[in-house]
Amino acid sequence: MADLRPILLVEDNPRDLELTLAALAKCQLANDIVVARDGAEALDYLDSKGTYKDRPPGDPAVVLLDLKLPKVDGLQVLEKVKKDPQQRQIPVVMLTSSREERDLVKSYELGVNAFVVKPVDFNAFFEAIQDLGMFWAVLNEPPPRARLKEA
Amino acid sequence: MDHLLPNLDACATEPIRVPGAIQPYGALLVVGFADLDVLHRSANVAELVGLDLKPGDRLSVFPDLADVCDQTRRWLGGDDYVLLCVVRIGGRDVQLSAHRSEQGVVLEFESPPREEDVSLAALYPRLRDFLDRISRASDVSAIAEEAVREVRALTRFDRVLLYSFDDKGDGTVLAEDGNGVLPSYLGLRFPASDIPPQARDLYRLNRIRLIADCDYQPVPIEPAVSPLDGTLLDLSRAALRSVSPVHLEYMRNMGTATSMSISILIDGELWGLISGHSRAPMIVNAQLRTACDILGQIVSLQIGSKLQAISSAERLELKSVETRLLGKLTVAPSYQRGLAGHPQLWMRLANASGAAVVVQDNVLTAGETPPERAIRELAKWLFDEQHDLLATASLASMWGGGEAIAQTASGVLAVSISQIRPDYIIWFRPEVVRTIEWGGDPTKPALGESGRLHPRKSFDMWKQQVRLHALPWTSAEVDNAASFRASIQTLVLRLAEERAELTDRLEAANKELESFSYSISHDLRAPFRHIVGFAELLADKEKHLDAKSQHYVQTIKEAALAAGDLVDDLLHFSQLGRSQLATASVDMNKLVKEVLHTLEPETAGRNIVWKIDALPHGYGDASMLRQVLQNLLHNAIKYSKPRDPAIISVRGTEDDRMTNYTVADNGVGFEMAYVGKLFGVFQRLHRAEDFEGTGIGLALVKRIVERHGGWIGAKGEPGVGAEFTFALPRDPDKLKRKTTLG
Prior knowledge:
The structure holds two protein chains of two kinds.
Chain A: E1 7-10, H1 14-27, E2 33-36, H2 39-47, E3 62-66, H3 74-83, E4 92-96, H4 101-109, E5 114-117, H5 122-139, H6 144-150
Parallel strand pairs in A: 1-2, 1-3, 3-4, 4-5
Chain B: H1 5-12, E1 21-22, E2 26-31, E3 38-42, H2 45-49, H3 66-77, E4 82-89, E5 92-101, E6 104-110, H4 120-135, H5 140-155, E7 159-165, E8 171-178, E9 189-190, H6 197-205, E10 208-211, E11 219-222, H7 245-254, E12 258-266, E13 269-278, H8 286-330, H9 335-341, H10 343-348, E14 354-359, E15 362-367, H11 372-384, E16 389-392, H12 406-409, E17 411-416, E18 424-429, E19 434-439, E20 461-466, H13 475-541, H14 547-578, E21 583-586, H15 588-598, H16 600-603, E22 608-612, E23 618-621, H17 622-639, E24 646-654, E25 658-665, H18 697-707, E26 711-717, E27 721-729, H19 732-741
Parallel strand pairs in B: 22-24
Antiparallel strand pairs in B: 1-11, 2-3, 2-6, 3-11, 4-5, 5-6, 7-8, 7-13, 8-9, 10-12, 12-13, 14-15, 14-18, 16-17, 17-18, 19-20, 21-23, 24-25, 25-27, 26-27
Helix pairs in contact in B: 4-5, 4-8, 5-8, 8-9, 8-13, 13-14, 14-18, 15-17, 17-18
């Protein structure tokens, strides 16, 4: 049974956003895509605050999080999610242009679920997004506690 | 000179200041300041004064002494230090000299200059001429020559010597003028014991002293004890003072009846003596003695200023060497290396023939020095003995290890450059075997059989060979070494500060570079990704595009992809400098297998003959070494594309220190003329349409290998093939163990 909770895509670059959306569209996922344009907005969504204070309850199926973001950057968002006992089971996939070792190490230290360097080759990017979307949105079973809460 | 000490000690007990007697060539009275009443008299007073004056007599009651009283009172009322005049006593001229003492006014009476003697007034032009001559003298020995000639001309002594004392007190005859009656002592050395310390003190106090006849009968002073203070009458400054019988014996042994000494004082120290002798007894009158005293002072000033000038010139020269050397040191990687890099300046700094610097047991040398081990031991000894600065002309006399290295290091000038370690800068001078010509054997025992003090009997030349000695260091050289040490310390401090500052700046620059490449990675990659992505989307959407348009879109995509690869490679390259090496033993056979597996897409459909030998294990960072093999094998596959079959071989060797790996192919090869360009960033030897690539692969390989402390080289021939060999150092731990065992 597919998990139809939305995918939270956090991306500030409009072109990357368009390409990612195109890639996700190609996957033909049934999940809604919620787009946040910076880290602060992403946190608002996750915490149901600000613009999102009236959003339907529930955590996203997966957060696709760009590393470099205005206001609150990706690592900070990741840190907050992974330190929050209520949110840390939300899968977070880090998307980044960088192969910088320190980002990688830091992300893993903070408990990232996957780390994807956006390849220049669109096909490879498409495949990566498709894999991610399929895996986290469709295939991945949410933790039992979350399901329990839902039920 | 230790063997001479008993002599000195024995002589030092002689009561030379208070002999209780005078020489008979004059008479002496000591009178009270107020009433000029007689306190002491010499027993011969009647002979010169014509009156048998006794203690308690008032001079003023004797009409014959009216002139003496007048002159004395006038002098006492003034500021003059001494009185020198001719007085009338009972119709006769008498020479009177007077000086003040704590025990009264000392009056000395002598015969006046005879008609044929030169008067003091007539001496003045002579002294002025003399001053002119010695002002023009080029050096100290020229001054000395002039001095002995002038003194002999004035006094008509048989022989006049000028000798200077060294730091041990030994005197060397610098100049001599004589008529041949007495033997020549020119160049001879007289031991310090010839003049005991208390006599030296008197030479400072009383600059001129005449012993008119070595066989004189001393004339007693009556009473011997001063009624004013109850002590023996002090005759330190009296011209007529009777001298030690030991000294008279010395004169008799020397064959001189008369001796006169004029002190040469420089900066208050007894630098030397002008000494006049005659075989037969003779008297030098008080006026002439005064002239000689003035002459002695002129000589003292001239020699002093000459020495000062020589020393100043030497200091100036040494200082300029120091300044030049310091200039070199400020741009050297370390001051030790700077010193070793300028051996001539370093040695000239102290006029040495060798130099060494010891820092943390590391020794750097210049010129002629002892072996390094001996230098280390010397530094350790200097440190143990807490020598902050040592200047010796005979290391062997101070240190047991000195004799073995005497040939290069008899002279040692060492300055400490660390409070906590045996770190020193040391200058060396070689042994100079010299012959000293003594005036008689100075080592002969001074005490005779009776136990009484006897001076030396023989003044015949006695040659002594001095070994284990170098030329002594001058005070200018020693001072310059000390000043150089201070400059070095300042320099070291400044270098440390500069290094700290440089480190800070480097860290800042590194950080900047990191954030720069981070920006590149993030921001430069993105547009290429967008181009590729949107070109792809366009191609997807417009499936009906004609062949030409499809080619355009495809080209856009490929160009952007290539640019993206370039950015990736550059990033990878720059990251290499910063990332840590995770070193371990690496199975290179396994790595090659893995790499060939990943390269399968490129080898598919090709006819390649692989010749892969068993490779020795390497020591390094596995992921980086994989990159090296990947790039080399990738190149081998790429450049052997035109061959059927392509032959690619991988082989390895090892020796004691390194493991070597070679990747060879039979591809297009390259011209050896361009081998230097192979490993540069963006250097390509082939046209892009023939062989695709970013031109960074080999630069990356070289960087990785060099970060491992290894090297890489290439051989090639156009149309025949290429061969790349890289070498990696073996596990340093294993190497160490091997050395210890072996």
